[in-house]
Amino acid sequence: MYPFSYTKVSDVPAAVKAGSDGGRYIAGGTTLVDLMRETVERPGALVDISALPLRDIAATKGGGLRIGALARMAEVAAHPTVRALYPVISQALELSASPQLRNMASIGGNIMQRPRCTYFRDVTAACNRREPGSGCAAREGFNRTHAILGTSDHCVATHPSDAAVAFAALEATVHLLGPGGERTVGFADFLLRPGATPQREQNLRPGELITAVEIPSHPRPLRSGYLKVRDRQSYEFALISAAVALHVRGGVIQTAKVAAGGVGTVSWKLSAVERRLIGQRPSEALWTQAAEVAAEGAQPLTHNGFKVELLKRTVERQLRVVGGTR
């Protein structure tokens, strides 16, 4: 370890002030502490925000949902309102981690996770996220678990959050508070693709704090669910995952929300799949046809070409499950 300062704050203004002075926010610490132990992260100051009043979970007017940034993953997954309105969120959280981690990790921290790339976590390997300009060892190394969508010459690491896939599908909004006041960012713009600056992973300004994630209201009835495909059934990150939400009225799909995980440098919205579904009648043929476009634009690497077909099959399977035919 190395020396750092530690401050615990009890109100939001104090947190923003400490963050603006260069402190790194920490709540559950399930990611940051590991990275500090491995010397991947070396913050000079930690600001403990776990006591802030940001844990409320409540329905909004019209049937949306607001989740406080410090609500624990286990609390959100078990909350009756979440399970009733958006089971896709509960399922994504329950498949995310071990019970011990879900009891500690916060929603804000979950979507702020750093990459699970082995080269990022190996301080002897070249990694542009950890050390800009050093290169990306994963591009020519063993890249079976890496991204096939949203990659760049500078980075091919996937975003590891399961909850982020559900939030992307449901078109959530992230509420932020910083020295410049409050602002909101659509989830599609919150997580940043690597491009030429992979070290910048979120649309955050200096000192900004996530206060909540809000799901907008969607037409009812809305059926939703999350499917995670992984190498083992116990605690493991996704090879492929799919979050699906469908509103069917009069036998026709009126609303379709679909996103995938394990394949993109950010949680990946499958807009082409959604367009294939809207206005159509649910059928076995439709699920297959819609899933065929799930991997549009994919750029597989040496060892992860299998993800192209696996993505299509995973999306098709979850469309079938949520759509009511199996």
From TrEMBL:
GO MF annotations, alphabetized: FAD binding; oxidoreductase activity
Show where the FAD-binding PCMH-type domain sits.
1-220
Q: Which domain of life is it from?
A: Bacteria
User: What are the entry keywords?
Assistant: Oxidoreductase
Q: Which InterPro entries match?
A: CO_DH_flav_C (IPR005107), CO_DH_flav_C_dom_sf (IPR036683), Diverse_Substr_Oxidored (IPR051312), FAD-bd_PCMH (IPR016166), FAD-bd_PCMH-like_sf (IPR036318), FAD-bd_PCMH_sub1 (IPR016167), FAD-bd_PCMH_sub2 (IPR016169), Mopterin_DH_FAD-bd (IPR002346)
PANTHER family (alphabetical): OXIDOREDUCTASE, XANTHINE DEHYDROGENASE SUBUNIT C-RELATED
**Protein name as it appears in the record:** Xanthine dehydrogenase family protein subunit M
